[in-house]
Amino acid sequence: MKLADLAALAGVSTATVSRALAGHSSVNEQTRERIRLLAREHDVRPNQLARNLRMKSTGAIGLVLPLGHAKTQHLTDPFFLSLLGFLADLLVERGYDILLSRVIPDAEDWLERLVDSGRIDGLLLVGQSDQFAAIERVSQRYRPLIVWGANRPGQHHLTIGSDNVAGGRLAANHLIAQGRQRLLFVGDPAPPEFADRFAGFAAAADEAGIAYSVLATAMSPETVHAAVAAHLAGGTVPDAIFAASDVAAMSVLRALAEAGIDVPTTTAVIGYDDVSLAAHTSPSLTTIHQDLAIGAKLMVDRLLKRVAGEPAESAIVAPALIKRQSA
Question: Do 266 and 168 belong together in one domain?
């Protein structure tokens, strides 16, 4: 039932019904109570959107996964699903609705259209993808915008994220300490987070005088699997592989098993993220842990400070090596 129908039942105007349900003093108490009883009887609720409009608030936060570099990636990816779950729980606890989107940037102003839609009080972006420039541009004028991603010197937009360079170093140093001599990085080295992971990995290898190579590939599971299988078929078998994510590392494990290569005896494998599935692969996956619970809390706290007009700064979450069977 619409407000107009309720107004007809009550014998008053729609505006009177709206004011009565909002508790406005311009409607006398007797009429307000009669309209409330009718509203309960017919399951009519106050217009939350109208109330929010008067308060200059939507009561909603945008939660967006931008996919400029990986158009086939989905919200069901274990890493994204974990982080989105933490963020959603925290936002609901703070009384916000969530506007969840998986966005494939189709024009230069895709982010402007989101922040100017009038539908949200603030925006959380999960990842920078290849949209660093767009995020920088919009953040110059739209402050309640927080990004899970890498932090670059001098950047304007506020980020929360893992110290990916340190994480890459942890992976390389662990492999080097085991005596591994032929290291391989598998993944897409272009997006900022992956680029930093590779940078830390390469720097540690260079400092130790250990050879490494790069197998650049898009990050969908099947693409990674096919790239690694083709690499192994070419006769080059590395004795250690660092994958840019756990999902990629799982595809690496599958390709190695199909090629009859023992993990970790012949080839050690390390992933990045420490998603819940990492402990249940065969062999279980050694990985670099990102504390998503802390990261999500930092994102939401910083965002709500910005929504309230208060200052907030970027933060970096320290990674940790989780040793399991694969390396």
Answer: yes
Give CA–CA dist 262/212, Å, rounded: 20
Summarised one tens digit per residue, pLDDT across range 110-147 is 889 888 888 899 999 998 888 888 999 999 999 999 99
The full DSSP string for 180-225 is --EEEEEE---SHHHHHHHHHHHHHHHHHT-EEEEEE---SHHHHH
Q: Are 327 and 271 spatial neighbours (Cβ–Cβ below 8 Å)?
A: no
Pairing verdict, β 182-187 and 60-66: unpaired
Q: Which pLDDT value is given to residue 103? A: 75
The domain tally of the chain equals 3
> Are 169 and 285 within one domain?
yes
| C-beta neighbour count of 68 within 10 angstroms | 18
| One domain, residues 250 and 177 | yes
Average pLDDT of every residue of the chain: 89
Pair 280, 297 in one domain: no
**85 and 120 in a common domain:** yes
Q: Which domain holds residue 37?
A: 3-54
Question: Among 32, 6, 30, which Cα is nearest to 19's?
Answer: 32
Strand ranges inside the chain, DSSP E = 60-66, 97-103, 122-126, 145-148, 158-162, 182-187, 211-216, 240-243, 268-273, 286-289, 315-317, 320-322
- Supply the CATH number for residue 201's domain: 3.40.50.2300
pLDDT tens column, 296-320 = 999 999 999 999 899 999 999 999 9
Task: Examine the domain organization and report whether 194 and 149 are in the same domain.
Answer: no
* pLDDT surpasses 80 at 238: yes
pLDDT digits (tens, 9 = 90+) for 160-195: 999 999 999 999 999 999 999 999 999 999 888 999
- Both structure tokens of 179: 């005596």
CATH number at residue 15: 1.10.260
Tokens of 180: 């591994």
